[in-house]
């Protein structure tokens, strides 16, 4: 038995001013066959990573393709997308004959000329391998669960957790179902229910936590093989943007339809109840500093690099400096130029530095301050569940009682290493400000005395009605009050 595995992934914010090119993939994950490290999966590479570890035990030969992944940003350059896609497709053709294909994709990648990148890839893979080869794909729940891609694959499974701490478990599930199908033990059939809604669904919040736990308890019983909850990615203007429920059963389409419908209707009933409350910047910082415990974590989702934002907005940073906050640390500010200047100045240097506020009007004005360089680190990483995420060269600077982490590889705050790389111990600070929507909770939730979410003036508005959609199919909530959810597959 022969399986082929590869990855091509990014999350595309079509409203972002940051174009995505091959350089962004080289900065993230750019691995040719056999180059994937053995220590941990990288962004969206878990299917290959898991298959490599299980090939001998499960009696199959793994043919490894390339793995390409980039931090979320704007629409991908068309020629660069086609170059990476065609490289993987060429590797697949060279690997033939194969019995199965495993793809680690994101699900919200958009390239110029390709609003449904994953649908394009999967259809081309299907054309190459034919109808009998089993195709399994792992997607991020912040995906566009389009009909085109679901129909092209046999097994589609999304991570269940937000923060995405279960990428390896879901990859194991994809591989299990692909192998069982190849052995003739299963005949997977799929149903998809379109909930016609745009929303945010952190699984660290009570309502969504209970919904996911319910779904997990249903799997493996009564012929239900897998259930996936597609949250959608709100910051992409594509036709099939919407929250959707995907159910896979063993040769029972009627059951798949019934389960998808029941769960879809329940998901619709949760509209407007799943996201945490948001405070103003001033109110959130005031609440954090007045809280008795420590550390208090303040999240800035509006400037989250994980949603395609630059991560260089200065609004909260400026407020902390102007109010003289003490025992406070903020991460990250993406500013490769400022990082370079800190390295040039050297450890311990005190010098005038302009940082942040570079990319767009929503970045705010840059900060001009006399700073002290407190720590420097080369080629740093942070952890995100089982994966490792590059931070690049980074520097810690002090402005009064505030410490700021500057990074050269744009990413959100995920692991405690974002501070520890540069000598800041997060458990010893009163206030931690993190630029992230909810992925930070995996590492910061357990140490936080309190978590506060603020809505700054960064580019990722929490009110989706303010986004200038032109392609999204209507009606859809909250853009429209009356919608028409239902089965689409």
UniProtKB/TrEMBL annotation:
Superkingdom of the source species: Bacteria
Cofactor: Zn(2+)
InterPro entries in alphabetical order: MlrC (IPR009197), MlrC_C (IPR010799), MlrC_N (IPR015995)
Annotated cofactor note: Binds 1 zinc ion per subunit.
Residue ranges of domain Microcystin LR degradation protein MlrC C-terminal in the record: 298-471
Keyword Nucleotide-binding tagged: no
Pfam families associated with the record: DUF1485 (PF07364), MlrC_C (PF07171)
Signal sequence residues: none
Recorded coiled-coil stretches: none
Family the UniProt entry places it in: Belongs to the peptidase M81 family.
Role noted for this protein: Involved in peptidolytic degradation of cyclic heptapeptide hepatotoxin microcystin (MC).
Protein's name in the database: Microcystinase C
């Amino acid at each position: 038995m022969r399986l082929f595995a590869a990855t091509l992934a990014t999350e595309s914010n079509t409203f972002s001013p940051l174009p995505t090119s091959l350089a962004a993939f080289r900065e993230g994950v750019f691995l040719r066959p056999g180059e994937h490290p053995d220590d941990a999966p990288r962004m969206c590479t878990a299917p290959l990573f898991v298959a490599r570890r299980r090939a001998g035990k499960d009696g199959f030969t793994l043919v490894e393709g390339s793995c390409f992944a980039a931090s979320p940003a704007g629409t991908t350059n068309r020629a660069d997308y086609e170059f990476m896609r065609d490289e993987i497709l060429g590797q697949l053709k060279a690997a033939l004959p194969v019995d199965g294909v495993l793809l680690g994709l994101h699900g919200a990648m958009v390239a110029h000329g390709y609003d449904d990148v994953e649908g394009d890839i999967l259809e081309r893979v299907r054309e190459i391998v034919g109808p009998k080869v089993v195709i399994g794909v792992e997607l991020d729940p912040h995906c566009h669960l389009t009909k085109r891609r679901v129909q092209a694959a046999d097994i589609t499974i999304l991570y269940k957790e937000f923060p995405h701490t279960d990428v390896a478990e879901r990859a194991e599930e994809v591989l299990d179902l692909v192998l069982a199908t190849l052995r003739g033990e299963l005949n997977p059939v799929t149903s998809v229910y379109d909930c016609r809604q745009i929303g945010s669904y952190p699984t660290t919040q009570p309502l969504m936590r209970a919904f996911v736990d319910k779904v997990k308890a249903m799997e493996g019983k009564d012929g239900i093989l897998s259930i996936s909850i597609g949250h959608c990615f709100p910051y992409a203007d594509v036709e099939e943007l919407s929250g959707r429920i995907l159910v896979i059963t063993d040769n029972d389409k009627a059951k798949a339809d019934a389960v998808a419908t029941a769960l879809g209707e329940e998901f619709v009933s949760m509209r407007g109840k799943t996201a945490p409350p948001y405070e103003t910047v001033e109110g959130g910082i005031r609440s954090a500093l007045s809280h008795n415990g420590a550390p208090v974590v303040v999240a800035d989702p509006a400037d989250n690099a994980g949603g395609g934002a630059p991560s260089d907005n200065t609004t909260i940073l400026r407020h902390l400096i102007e109010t003289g906050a003490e025992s406070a640390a903020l991460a990250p500010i993406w500013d490769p130029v400022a990082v370079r200047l800190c390295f040039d100045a050297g450890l311990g240097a005190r010098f005038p530095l302009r940082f942040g506020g570079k990319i767009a009007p929503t970045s705010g004005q840059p900060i001009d301050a006399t700073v002290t360089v407190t720590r420097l680190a080369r080629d740093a990483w942070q952890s995100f569940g089982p994966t490792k995420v590059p931070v690049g060269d980074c520097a810690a600077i002090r402005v009064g009682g505030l410490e700021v982490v500057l990074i050269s590889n744009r990413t959100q705050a995920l692991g405690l290493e974002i501070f520890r790389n540069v000598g800041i111990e997060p458990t010893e600070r009163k206030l931690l400000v993190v630029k992230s929507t909810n992925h930070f909770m995996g590492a910061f939730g357990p140490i936080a005395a309190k978590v506060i979410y603020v809505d700054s003036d960064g580019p990722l508005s929490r009110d989706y009605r303010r986004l200038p959609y032109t392609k999204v199919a209507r009606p859809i909530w909250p853009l429209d009050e009356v919608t028409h959810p239902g089965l689409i597959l």
